[in-house]
Amino acid sequence: xxxxxxxxxxxxxxxxxxxxxxxxxxxxxxxxxxxxxxxxxxxxxxxxxxxxxxxxxxxxxxxxxxxxxxxxxxxxxxxxxxxxxxxxxxxxxxxxxxxxxxxxxxxxxxxxxx
Length: 114
Description:
By secondary structure, this protein is mainly alpha-helical. It folds into two domains: about 1-45, no CATH class; about 50-114, no CATH class. Helices cover about 60% and strands about 5% of the residues. The chain has five helices and two strands; from the N terminus they run H-E-H-E-H-H-H. The chain has helices at about 5-10, 25-35, 50-65, 75-85, 90-114; strands spanning about 15, 40.
């Protein structure tokens, strides 16, 4: 964020959403996020598919690599970078809008359960 969106970092106008993996919720990470006053969007329990990388990006990259055999890690990286650059900006924006809609629906459902 600091490098790619410095204005959002400076103004603290962004939110972090992660999947509650132990590496993301460790004391060190929580202290860092608190120190930098980062807003964290909580992940509802048993909803790992809400991370945009899981429901959008990985599926898109996986499908583009499917059926190809690579000889080296560098060849895989080169193809992934090519595929990432080929994704249009509005495709990412659409994925973000879908994420917000899905997250809202999940929270509505969990309200009824809790």
